[in-house]
Specification:
The complex is a heterodimer of chains A (279) and B (177). Chain A has seven helices and eleven strands. Chain A is α+β, with helices and mostly antiparallel strands. The relative contact order of chain B is 0.10. The chains are: A alpha+beta (279), B mainly alpha (177).
């Protein structure tokens, strides 16, 4: 019977499976019926695929975006599924006190490291260890694993998430100097901390110029707050902690510019890179 | 991309969320009774998607169609479980209006374009039943109640409609049964 189509009853069950689902008894019966029709191609183009194709006639036109809060939950779930955190490179800086950390940071020997409860605790423990651990030669400012800290922050209630886009909004000023950078901002205003994640941010020469984050809160563009000065050491994934110069209140826009080495107190916002808005 | 997702490449996972988050969310919203239910469903769909990534065959379907198929499977199963746990809900305004004249969106996948051509060949009543079943996830009984058609006719319309779409997909992909 190879190649013969299933009978009407099997076809009914296949249609039910693709549209309303089957109970255990029906599923077992369908399995039994299909075992009599071992047509190889039958498994490739299924009723489910046909139903999905019909569904896609309307689904893309709805044009909905995944809400930030839901995306955070999905990313947290991805962290649990992926296991130990992935290699990251990061730079952190502030005017006059730049610290750089780079290299692989997935050295956790524990397979359960990405479980979020563990991550939150581990981040705190590692931070404490880094403060006193002798012989590391990296000083008290070392951040142990920004990837893990970012993931822990992502699942914290009240944390905001915004995706980078080209810096062509905000006002009618200069065109972006850098385009196509991907990534996002995670920011916990209650804790005044957060992380920027970039993919495709050009590597800079710190002797000539540096990146600077600006946070715009309820006080508006005129009183933008420096969120830190940093360097890009890779065009692959880069995670940079946020360190606002003063306390933010109602932060809603994050913008990155290119400034002179050491940053500036008042930027003309002429050399634009990326912008993310929570609005 | 799905090959890299199957290898648990974090960048591919993010790309997957970036590219298909909106699609999964729109499907979840349509299949779910509440926003909270849709949020839970999105998480389940993505987990299923990552676990199923190794099964993706670009010769059979586009990535978007594969995502829609995995998402629908999870959402249908969730709805089935909810119907088992809860008393049947009144139809009310959940009934999908007839959309016989709906234009095909310009950015559909290759498979959706084939499906559109297949639907055009069906009788309007058959199209309507199929859309109510697939777009709204309504049960055969609900569709029969809404349309006044006998239950057997509803089932036949859905079965024949899916077979027609499937046949045309097989032809377009060069797969024969």
């Amino acid at each position: 019977v190879s190649g013969a189509p299933p009978n009407d009853h099997a076809q009914d069950l296949l249609a039910d499976h693709a549209t309303v689902g089957l109970d255990d008894h029906e599923a077992a019966h369908l399995h039994e019926l299909l075992s009599q029709y071992p047509a190889p191609g039958f498994e490739r183009i299924s009723h489910e695929l046909a139903a999905a194709a019909i569904d896609l006639l309307i689904a893309p036109s709805q044009g909905q975006a995944l809400p930030s809060a839901v995306r955070m939950r999905v990313e947290a779930q991805a962290a649990r599924w992926l296991g130990p955190t992935t290699p990251v490179e990061t730079s952190i800086g502030a005017p006059g006190a730049r610290i750089r950390i780079s290299g692989s940071r997935n050295a956790s020997p524990y397979g359960v490291a990405a479980r979020l409860g563990w991550l939150a605790a581990a981040a705190a423990v590692l931070l404490a260890l880094a403060a006193w651990w002798p012989g590391t030669g990296r000083g008290k400012h070392q951040e142990p694993d920004v990837g893990a800290q970012r993931q822990a922050l992502l699942v914290k209630e009240g944390t905001m998430l915004a995706t980078w886009g080209d810096f062509n909004a905000l006002d009618s000023g200069a065109v972006p100097e850098v385009q196509g950078v991907k990534g996002d901002v995670v920011y916990d205003e209650a804790a005044q901390t957060g992380f920027m994640r970039f993919v495709g941010l050009p590597v800079n020469d710190p002797a000539k110029e540096q990146y600077q984050l600006w946070i715009i809160d309820s006080r508006g563009l005129g009183q933008r707050i420096s969120g830190g000065i940093f360097d890009s050491t890779t065009e692959r994934e880069l995670i940079v902690p946020i360190a606002p110069g003063i306390r933010t209140r109602g932060a809603s826009i994050f913008a990155v510019t290119i400034e002179q080495p050491g940053g500036t107190w008042v930027s003309d916002m002429e050399r634009r890179v990326v912008l993310a808005s929570t609005k | 991309m799905f090959q890299r997702v199957a290898r648990k490449d974090p960048a591919a996972i993010r790309e997957c969320i970036d590219r298909f988050g909106g699609l999964v969310w729109s499907l979840a919203r349509r299949f779910s009774a509440t926003e909270a239910d849709a949020e839970d469903a999105v998480q389940e769909v993505f987990l299923n998607l990552w676990k199923s990534a190794a099964r993706y065959d670009p010769g059979v379907a586009s990535e978007a169609t594969f995502v829609a198929m995995i998402a629908r499977r999870r959402l249908i199963d969730r709805n089935r479980a909810r119907r088992r746990d809860l008393p049947s809900e009144p139809l009310g305004d959940r009934i999908e209006p007839a959309r016989e004249n709906e234009a095909t969106p310009p950015d559909v996948t290759e498979e959706a374009a084939v499906a559109a051509r297949a639907l055009e060949q069906l009788h309007p009543e058959q199209q309507r039943v199929l859309r109510m079943s697939i777009y709204r996830g309504l049960s055969h009984e609900q569709i029969a109640q809404a349309t006044g058609l006998p239950l057997g006719t509803v089932k036949t319309h859905i079965r024949r409609g899916l077979i027609r779409v499937r046949e045309m997909l097989e032809t377009s992909k060069g797969v024969s049964t």
